[in-house]
Amino acid sequence: PATETRGRTWAHVADVIRARTGIDVPAAGLAAELLAYWNAATADAQPLPGAADALRAAAERKLELAIVSSSPRAVIDRFLDKLGTADLVKPRVRIGGDDVRNGKPDREGFLRAARALEVDPAEALVFEDSRAGLLAARAAGMRSMFVTCCADDVARNAGLATASCSDYRSLPPSFWDGLVAGSLDLHGRSFT
């Protein structure tokens, strides 16, 4: 199922395919082919509603930004360029699946980002759309916002998150200021 592979590295997806199908293809080669196919298939992908504006709003308020993805760093760079927001996220805090030893649901990527930003993991807020990412955020001791518009198995995974939003446009205008002030109680909140 998609829940098992969503938010995971291409190496993990290749291992799942090999185990389920029994095909005798080297995992690294299959992962590379999957990534190439995905890159081609997502060349015209549309951003999540409000994503670019959310990055800009957070940056305007001097919030530290990082991106942790199971995809390689080159994919992060490509999508930031496409959003027109590459200048908002420093290259040193773009953590791709190729930058870590253990991908999501392991906490390694999120903890690496926190160290690079010099922030306490408990003060961080992770925006995630996958079970693997929510588990990684929880393991890292970070709060999480489950972005449900493109997520699988929302009912099953919502309980892993601190809060949820349907997409970035559903966050109220006061959201970012509340984060900065530390006055925003996210526990159990749902922004729709």
In angstroms, what separates the terminal alpha carbons?
Answer: 26 Å
* Rg measurement, Å: 17 Å
Instruction: Specify the overall morphology.
Output: globular
What percent of residues adopt helix (DSSP H or I)? 40-55%
- The neighbouring-strand order within the major sheet is 3-4-5-6
Strand content is: 5-15%
Sheet/helix structural class: alpha/beta
Poorly predicted runs: none
Query: Could you tell me the mean pLDDT?
Result: 93
Major sheet characteristics: 4 strands, parallel
Please trace the helix and strand order, writing H or E for each element.
HHHHEHEHEHEHEHE
Given the structure, what is the number of helices?
9
User: How many β-strand stretches?
Assistant: 6
Short summary of the structure?
The protein is α/β, with parallel strands linked by helices and 192 residues long. 43% of the residues lie in helices and 9% in strands. The mean pLDDT is 93.
Structure keywords:
four-stranded parallel beta sheet, two-stranded parallel ribbon, 9 helices, 9% strand
What would you say this structure looks like, in words?
The chain is an alpha/beta fold and 192 residues long. It is built from nine helices and six strands. The strands form two sheets. The chain has a four-stranded parallel sheet, covered by helices on one side. Strands 1-2 form a two-stranded parallel ribbon. Helix 9 links the parallel strand 5 (163-165) and strand 6 (190-191). Helix 2 crosses helix 3 (27-41). The chain starts with a helix and ends with a strand.
